[in-house]
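Journal club side-thread
Mid-discussion, someone asked how the predicted structure for our own chain would compare to the paper's figures. Pasting it here so we can look after the session.
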Amino acid sequence: MIKGIYEAHLPVSNLNVSIEFYKKLGLELAYQQEKLAFIWIVKGESWLGLWESNEVHLPYHPSTRHLAFRVDIEGLEHAKEWLKELNIPVRTSFGFTEERQPLVLPNNPHAHGAIYFADPDGNSIELICALRLDVNEEFKMMTLEEWKVK
């Protein structure tokens, strides 16, 4: 029955600035009204709703101001350089500085690689890929480079 997530939504303070930011990431504008835009993540499969609002700067909590884009391992390995080319700083996450990212999340029995940054309104954006599924092995969070040699 369920095939995936079709849409997610984020609050933004300036719709046009946010549209340009997400277009810079390679996403396509699907639809726009006065204070709402939808950006294709994968055309016909998933999109992101951007809602211009005066109440954007809510206290951060991942349940309301976080979005994760799925990438493959090759994309994750080049994500830091790609973000740098786009003038988008990598965010310190879980005590891991920009230099120590991408990082590997120990979501046992799974492991995911991830890197974090923010959109113009401080919404948390993540690039994530599955590294290992259904393998019961405990480990601590580490860098992707450490993961590759472990």
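Post-session note: Strands lie at 7-12, 28-32, 36-42, 46-52, 66-70, 103-105, 111-118, 124-132, 142-143.
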